[in-house]
Amino acid sequence: MSGIEVEPRRPDAVRYGRWAPRVRWRLLPWWGRVIVVYAASRLLTTVFVMLLAREQGANPWTGAQPGYFEYANIWDSRWYQVIAAVGYPTELPSTDDGHVAENAWAFLPVFPGVVRLFTAVGVPWDVAAVLVALSAGLGAALVFHRLMSRFLEPDQAMFAVVLFCVAPVAPIMQFGYAESLGFLWLAIALLLLVDRRYGWLVPVLAVWAFTRPGALAFALTLGLHWIVRWATRRRDPFPVRERIVVASVAAFAGVVGLAWPGIAWAATGSLTAYTDTELAWRSAYIGYVELVPLTPWFQSGEWWLGQPMGTVVPIALVIAFGLAIASPWVQRLGVDIRLWLVSYALYVFAVFFPQSSTFRILAPLFPMAGALAVPRSPWWRGGLVLLFLALQVGWLLIAWGIDGRDWTPP
């Protein structure tokens, strides 16, 4: 024996060589893996989008066969562009019969404000909007990995990120929409809540409330969190100081969640400016009606399915969601994630009128991807990715492509 100890080589390095793809993947830090997954998924989605664009005819936003950046900024993206250019109307537009028409008050100001910073230095709107959305989506994926790592093993947390990146509505993260920024603030807020860093929630909620709707649902999450911590205080101490902080942050979330309707009222002089604007979008389906909480899903069910299925299906969906929340896979995600899932689902059920935008509106339930990442079977994981990609193509065909008078907005 020479007395010189040779460090044993890792099995992967022996079998595949140091620079084999599997070895290089395992040598990457967690954030490097997330970046690779996000980049690969966005490239694949870009292929889907460009194939669809080749078949796209002339429409209200583009000519036939538009380029990527132009095609990625149709539908609601143009509302954000209008907001960045001229702001919000002080006088609500009206239809011929006197109802409030669709207008910019339905869209929150943070996303167009951020994009405008880039256009101010010469970046075209279409390019800047996509770059902002892409960057925010990457940030959301990185934070989501940290969040899932609080509950899952490393391979499960990474697969949860894979599902987030290839989800059926994931193309929205590379379009001129505010969803990516909303995902980012939500992921940060949930991570702060799980880590009980309550004070840092204040600035996050303040920005999130003016990016995408959801702060009101998070206020409910915080209220339920307070109740759970109070009920379990004997085994998990809940000091008086934390009780005050959580209650205060919950109240703050409620205030900022209601701030935008208040701002619309102040700017237009109409107390119901925001809700009337939102109701204008569902008027094409059921006409102009008052907003009565917990009724829109039944109104939509009747319009789409008639009776009795218009009542049966929403009730069945509620029951199915409840069973999913109670499942062992979802329970792995911890009580705070489940509180958010319930809170946001209740919020959507209370005020949203289901139509083709439902898939996008439900996207803030993305922490559910962590539950689907629990099984380790290669068949399960591979099949789920293929299913999500197929559904992604389906979503693009149904919701993004435009065919005449289109009833399927994204």
Automatic annotation (TrEMBL):
It is found in: Endoplasmic reticulum membrane. It comes from the Bacteria. It is a multi-pass membrane protein. Keywords: Endoplasmic reticulum, Glycosyltransferase, GPI-anchor biosynthesis, Membrane, Transferase, Transmembrane, Transmembrane helix. Pathway: Glycolipid biosynthesis; glycosylphosphatidylinositol-anchor biosynthesis. InterPro entries: PIG-V/Gpi18. The chain crosses the membrane at residues 30-53, 127-145, 157-178, 198-224, 244-267, 310-330, 342-363, 384-402. The keyword Transmembrane helix applies. PANTHER family: GPI MANNOSYLTRANSFERASE 2 (PTHR12468:SF2). This is Mannosyltransferase PIG-V. It comes from Agromyces indicus.
